[in-house]
UniProtKB/TrEMBL annotation:
Residues 125-174 form the RNA polymerase sigma factor 70 region 4 type domain. It comes from Pseudoxanthomonas mexicana. This is RNA polymerase sigma factor. NCBIfam families: sigma70-ECF. Gene3D superfamilies: 1.10.1740.10, Winged helix-like DNA-binding domain superfamily/Winged helix DNA-binding domain. Keywords: DNA-binding, Sigma factor, Transcription, Transcription regulation.
Amino acid sequence: MDAPAHAPDPDAEAEAERLRRARRGDGAAFEALYHDHARAVHALAFRLTGNAAEAEDIVQETFLRMFGFLSGLRENTPLRPWLKRVAANLAIDRLRRQQRPGTEMALAALADPASASPADAADADALLRRLPPLARTVVWLHEMEGWSHEDLGRRFGRTASWSKSLMSRSLARLRQDLAPHGDAPHDA
């Protein structure tokens, strides 16, 4: 029999208590929050940047921001979605800083499929790494993190149409990479 919908979630209660303790300056509580969420934040940051060192920097900056914003976090609101949103925004900021004038089309263009082995085609992470950072970020945030095209367009200083177009080109390229060599992708 399922638990009633109003039953408290022990994990959520434990996290809320750690947040209360961290707000009061309890270093062990902050450390526990870090250990609870750092791996998920790092995984997202790595997927978006494709660079382990940058991902680690983003994790550190995310938790520094959390530490500075502890009093502003609402009670009984899950922490992980907030942390992942901060990490995604930090990754986007890095991408925007790395863009040089005149490279817009190069960033939107998709990577050369000849650079990956056929074995990598089966690995979703390896397949996503074939995309340039901007395309990879938009695909991941939309498909896996649930960001809307409006959110993505706004965050990148663009339109929802820009996000949809980049997403469409990226997914078409990934489908092409998954098709048997020489076969054109087709719908059944």
